[in-house]
Amino acid sequence: MKKISFKLGISFLIVVLILESLLFFFLYLFIVKERVESETDNLLGRGMNHRDVLEKNFNIDTIEHVALMESEAETKVVIANEKFKIIDASHDINQNMKQLISKGRSMDFSHHGILVESRWASEPYLATISPIIIDGSNEGYVYMFADTNPIRTMIKNITLVFVVIDGIAIIISIITIFFLSQFITQPLIKMKEATEKITKRDNDVILDIHRDDELGELARAIYTLSNELEYLKNERTEFLSSVSHELRTPLTYLKGYADILNRSNLPAKDREKFASIIQEEATHLAEMVKELFLLAKMDKNQFLIHKKTIPLCYFLQDIISKLKPAFTEKNIRLQLTCAKDVNVNIDPIRFRQVINNLLDNARKYASEYTSVKVSAYEQEDNVVIEITDQGEGIPEKDIPYIWERLYRVDKSRSRALGGRGLGLAIVKEIIERHGGTVNVKSLYGEGTTFTIKIKKWN
Fold this sequence. Notes:
One of its GO terms (molecular function) is phosphorelay sensor kinase activity. It is found in: Cell membrane. The protein folds into 3 domains: 2-154, PAS domain (Beta-Lactamase), CATH 3.30.450.20; 214-299, Helix Hairpins, CATH 1.10.287.130; 308-455, 2-Layer Sandwich (Heat Shock Protein 90), CATH 3.30.565.10. Helices cover 57% and strands 18% of the residues. It has 10 helices and 12 strands. A 5-stranded antiparallel sheet has the order 2-1-5-4-3. Strand 11 (437-443) and strand 12 (447-455) form a beta hairpin. The radius of gyration is 50 Å and the shape is rod-shaped.
C-alpha cells in the first residue's frame, strides 16, 4: 500500500508540475510579449509625436528643440532629411544606429511609422521610423532608438521571479500532494488490514463507515462483508452441529435396536417391533440425506429449473387428490379454490415438491376437525397461491427463522411429527429460483397462511 501511496503521489506531482509549467510558461510569454509591445508602442508613439511637431514647424529651431527634449530621456532621436542625411540627433550616433538608419532606407513605411528593429533579445536597439510629410511631400524622417539592455534586464528579473514562484509552487505542491496521498491511501491501508484480518477469521474490523464518498462506500461494503462472513461462519458452525446431532440420533437408534435384535432370546413380537423402528429411522435418515444433498446442489448452483406452461388448477387438483386420504385420516378437510384458466410457467416437478411440503406441514400441525384451504388466483401480472391451516400457529419470535436450515419451532415435537427442519428452506429456495416470493402470516393458536407469489410469465 505504501507503493500505491508513492505511485499516487508521484503521478499527482507529475501532473501538477506539467500543468504548473505550462501555466507559468504561457504566463511568462504573455507578460514578456506585453512588456515588449508596450516598449515598442511607446517608442513608435514618441516618434510620431515628434513627427507631428516637425510637420507643423519643420525648421532648425524646432529640430534642435526636439533633439534637446530627447537628450534627457532614455530613448534617442535622430532627424534626417528626405535623402536620409542626418540633420540633428539627441545623442551621439554609433555604428549600430547608423546601420539601422541605413536599413530604414530600403523599407516600405506609411505615415504612421514602422518598426525598423524589434529583436530585443539579440540587438542593442529597438528602432522606429516616422516620415515627415508636409503638403504631400516627404521632407524627412524621425528615427527613434531605445536601448534593449533595460528590456533584457527587466525580462531577466521577470524570469527570476517566475523561477522563484515556480519553485515555491512546486514545494507547496509536493507537500500538498504528500498529505493528499496520505489522506487517500490511509483509509485504503486500513481496509487492506481489515481484509487481512477477515482472511484470518478475525472479524473485529474497525473502519470509518461514516464518510460520504467512494471510500466510505467501500468501507461500508467491507464492513458488511465482514458481518456477513461472521454470520455465515456462525451459521455453518451451527448447521454442522445441527446436522451432526440430527444424524447422530437416528444412527443411535439404528445401532441400539440392531444390538437388541442380535439377542438370541428376543421374543418374535419384540423383534418385529424393533425391526419396524429400525426401518422407520432408516427412512427418516435417508430422507434427511436426500434433502441435505438437494440443498448442497442448490448452494453449488447445480440445481436446475426446467419451466413449462401448465394449467395451475389441474396441477393443484392432482396434488390434492393424492394427499386427501392422509388429511381425511386425521379428520381434516382439504379444500381447493382456484380461478379457471390460470396458467403459470413453472417447473412442475419442483413446484409439486413445494406444494407437497407446505401441505404436509399443514397436515402435521393442523388440529382435528379443521380445514386446510388452498387458494389460487391472479393478481395483476402475478399468480398467487395461499395455503391456510387452522392449526396451532407459529410464535411471532420464531417466524423470521423458519426459513433457516434445521430450524424447528417446537424441538420437542419435531421428531414425533417427522420434521427435519429442511423443508421450508427447500421451499424458499425453489420459489426464489422461479423468480417468486414466499411469505408467512401466523397467529399463535389460530393458524398459519403461506403465500406464494410468482409471475405468470417469467
